[in-house]
Structures are given as structure tokens and as C-alpha cells.
Design a protein that fits this description.
Thrombin, subunit H; 6-stranded antiparallel barrel; 5 helices; globular
Length: about 325
């Protein structure tokens, strides 16, 4: 017996088995649930938004994803934006900026992507250590909403494409149109500014978009929007240790929007935000998948059993 494996791509693997003069082509498919360790690798891949795509996601797909995870956070002083961070049963957790919630009231409204309104309460027992972050919770008994996928901002480099989303302040509060803008990374500061901002990017970010997502090309949230370019009041470009950037750097920073890295949130509120340690869009994951499929191929050849495909065809759409 001669066994040959043809590895076409992450979603297509063919096993060719030659027995005598006969040649058989068998699609390599998923193991039964008894093989839990190997199956968990496949589950991790399926749980990604766009990270399991061989090619970058389209602008249309990224905008659709941004719309599905971004909410409007409404207070007595106006509104900002937020990101659906976690779902536990009927309860959803949303991250936004603290300055969006700067009011004496602790109850807010959240408008979800389907246009519905929910009462939301601020989570008070989290210490964000002067970072411009805050968490809200709301309950939905009937509708199900998409939860954002997070990625460490250290995977970014200057020049990388970024996509920002949020609800800019408009004349009519009932308007629900999401603004989705494109840009590139310009500054990745090792030293955070006073409110935790470290990612500078060229995307247009307007008032009202604070708390919205900054996405990478895979549709993963790498930062939380919070500071637009050309600030009108004060000097926000002061590092946490009290030092200030050079005049040239400060002038550059003033032309950029800034976001708080999502890993800052994950570090300070780990029960609400977690970043997968395995980056499945990188080549290292291919080996795991290949080994999984190789094992499954031999098992199927010996047992002659077939199961659903290991990798569902992905359109880079978000998970719910």
C-alpha cells in the first residue's frame, strides 16, 4: 500500500491511497468527538473571525464585522461607542472609554446593531489604573449578538492597515449610521500616554467614536478608539511617567488618532477580555492542522469511516 498526502491549503487536503493497481482519493475529514485533543485544534480555528483566512478579508467583510460588534453607548451628556466583549448566557459585557461615561449616573442605554435599546449598568469593581477604560453590562433575553475577537497589538507594525469604527456625534440622536474608516499604523509607543493610549494611526476618528474598535486586517480588535486628531483642549501628549515627547514627535502625534491597546484591557480585566495565545493566521498553526489531518487520514484509511469536514468553508465572517 502506498499513501500520498496532497496538502492543497488549510481547507483542502486529499489522501491518495494506492492499493495494488487501484488508486483511491479520499477526502480527509474530521475525527469523531472521542478524539477531543485533536478536535480542539479544529475548534480553535473555527472560532476565529478572519484569522483563519488564507487571504486578507475584504473591506465589505470587515465593515460588516465592525457593524456587528459595535454599539452606541448613550448617556445624559450624549453618546459614544462600545465593543461587545463577552457573552455569558443573556448577559453581554461592553467595553468603552471612561470619558464616555463621565456622569453622576450609573445607568446608561446601549443601542445594539439591530437598533434595539437596552438598559446598561457600569461595572464598578474593576480597577483600570487611570486608563481610559470602562465596562458596561446589559441583558438580552431574545436577541443574540456577535462578540469581538481580540488580538495583541504587538502583532502590528508601522504601516499596517487598520480599520476604525464608531458612531460620530450627529445632529439627530436617533441616527444609527456607523462610520467605518481606513488608515494605517503610524506610532506604536512603548511608553503609554497618561490615559493609556499607545497606538497612533491615520484613520479618521470623530467625536462619538470613542470606545469603538480598531481592527486589524483579520477583523480582530487590537485597540479601543479614544482620542481623535487635533484635540481642542489641553495637552494630551504627556507620558504616564510625566515626560513629554519631543516637539517634532508631538507635532506628528497631533495629526493622529490614538487607541488603547486591547492587551491593556485583557491585563486589567482578564475575566472579561482574553486574547488567544495561538495566532492561527500565522504559519505555525499550519503544522498543527497538518498533523491533525495526517492522523485522521490514516485512521480513515484503516477504519473506512467518514465524518464532517474538519474545516468549514470560511467567508471571514464573525462568530456569534
Amino acid at each position: 500500500m502506498c499513501i500520498v498526502l496532497y496538502f492543497v491549503n488549510l481547507r483542502s487536503l486529499i489522501l491518495a491511497a494506492s492499493i495494488g493497481s487501484g488508486l483511491f482519493y479520499l477526502p480527509i475529514q474530521k475525527l469523531s468527538k472521542n478524539f477531543s485533543d485533536l478536535e480542539s485544534s479544529a475548534t480553535q480555528i473555527q472560532s476565529q473571525n478572519c484569522a483563519d483566512c488564507n487571504n486578507f478579508c475584504s473591506i465589505k467583510e470587515l465593515k460588516s464585522l465592525a457593524q456587528s460588534i459595535t454599539v452606541k453607548v448613550i448617556s445624559e451628556n450624549g453618546w459614544g461607542s462600545g465593543i461587545i466583549l463577552k457573552r455569558e448566557g443573556e448577559v453581554y459585557t461592553v467595553v468603552t472609554n471612561q470619558h464616555v461615561l463621565d456622569t453622576d449616573y450609573k445607568s446608561f442605554l446601549i443601542q445594539t446593531p439591530d437598533g434595539l435599546f437596552y438598559q446598561a449598568n457600569k461595572i464598578e469593581n474593576e480597577d483600570f489604573q487611570e486608563n481610559d477604560l470602562a465596562l458596561l453590562e446589559f441583558r438580552s433575553t431574545h436577541s443574540t449578538y456577535t462578540v469581538a475577537s481580540l488580538e495583541n497589538s504587538t502583532t502590528l507594525s508601522p504601516g499596517d492597515k487598520t480599520f476604525a469604527a464608531g458612531f460620530p456625534t450627529l445632529e439627530k440622536p436617533q441616527d444609527q449610521e456607523l462610520l467605518f474608516t481606513r488608515g494605517r499604523i503610524s506610532i506604536l509607543s512603548d511608553l503609554p500616554l497618561e490615559k493609556g493610549y499607545q497606538i497612533g494611526y491615520t484613520n479618521v476618528v470623530k467625536k462619538g467614536m470613542s470606545g469603538g474598535p480598531l481592527l486589524n486586517i483579520y477583523g480582530q480588535v487590537v485597540g479601543i478608539n479614544g482620542m481623535h486628531a487635533y484635540p481642542l483642549w489641553g495637552n494630551p501628549y504627556v507620558y504616564r511617567d510625566g515626560s513629554q515627547p519631543s516637539l517634532i514627535l508631538r507635532q506628528k502625534m497631533s495629526h493622529l488618532a490614538f487607541a488603547i491597546p486591547v492587551e491593556t484591557l485583557a491585563k486589567l480585566a482578564p475575566k472579561f477580555a482574553s486574547i488567544p495565545t495561538v495566532k492561527l493566521h500565522q504559519a505555525a498553526s499550519s503544522k498543527k492542522v497538518f498533523n491533525y489531518l495526517l492522523f485522521d487520514g490514516f485512521r480513515q484509511l484503516l477504519n473506512w469511516r467518514f465524518y464532517p469536514h474538519i474545516l468549514s468553508s470560511s467567508s471571514c465572517e464573525s462568530r456569534v
